[in-house]
């Protein structure tokens, strides 16, 4: 079973904004695959996602030649992979992905090259160019089915009740609840508590 949703993105800013929204829900141990043609926005999405986990601006180089770039000092450790130059799947075995998948959020550009090795619990984001805009077709597999539905529900709530607010990560407690800080254009902030219906 899967859950699918599509976003229409007018420009790179909207692509980056979508990535920042996903950063509020993705954490270490998760797997995000990015697919799409050259220039569709995979690297734009990956960079914005990684920077969302930082307190200070950082450089996020493309791992086209290194294959993998690690970010261990971010709020969520991230392993950023680019498989464009991958010639044999045996090369992927040398990257230590099994270990990274337990300690890092794994973000993979050209993820379709993993073919039947894709993990059962994954988020796949296919970026397509349509006229002058982009379409992000997002599919949640395994645990990402419910999480994607939850993300959409929270997004609608914020849009209806706090339009124009910036959403920021806020450290939660030991419960199943999740928190965000909502900041308006004047700098005033509110607390958002997101609690799954069956949690407590």
Brief account:
The chain has 200 residues and is an alpha/beta fold. Helices cover 26% and strands 31% of the residues. A hairpin with a 2-residue loop joins strand 6 (122-130) and strand 7 (133-141).
Distance between the termini: 26 Å
Multimeric status of the protein: single chain
Give the mean pLDDT.
91
- The rough form would be described as globular
Strands of the widest sheet, in order across it, are 1-7-6-2-5-4-3
Radius of gyration using CA atoms only: 17 Å
β-strand amount: 25-35%
Query: What is the count of helical runs?
Result: 5
Total strands: 10
Q: Topology as H/E string? A: EHEHEEHHEEEHEEE
Low-confidence stretches: none
* Residues in helix, %: 25-40%
Question: Which structural class matches the secondary elements?
Answer: alpha/beta
> The biggest beta sheet, please?
7 strands, mixed
């Amino acid at each position: 079973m899967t859950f699918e949703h599509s976003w229409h993105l007018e420009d790179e800013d909207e692509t980056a904004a979508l990535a920042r929204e996903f950063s509020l829900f993705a954490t270490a141990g998760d797997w995000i695959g990015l697919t799409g043609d050259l220039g569709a926005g995979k690297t734009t999405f990956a960079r914005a996602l990684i920077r969302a986990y930082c307190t200070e601006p950082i450089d996020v180089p493309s791992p086209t030649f290194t294959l993998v770039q690690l970010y261990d000092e971010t709020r969520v450790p991230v392993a950023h992979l680019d498989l464009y130059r991958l010639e044999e799947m045996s090369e992927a075995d040398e990257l230590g992905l099994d270990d990274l998948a337990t300690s890092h959020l794994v973000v993979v550009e050209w993820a379709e090259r993993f073919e039947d090795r894709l993990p059962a619990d994954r988020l796949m984001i296919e970026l397509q160019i349509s006229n002058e805009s982009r379409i992000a077709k997002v599919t949640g597999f395994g645990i990402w089915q419910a999480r994607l539905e939850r993300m959409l529900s929270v997004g609608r709530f914020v849009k209806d009740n706090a339009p124009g607010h910036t959403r920021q990560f806020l450290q939660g407690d030991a419960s199943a609840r999740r928190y965000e800080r909502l900041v308006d254009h004047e700098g005033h902030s509110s607390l958002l508590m997101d609690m799954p219906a069956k949690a407590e």
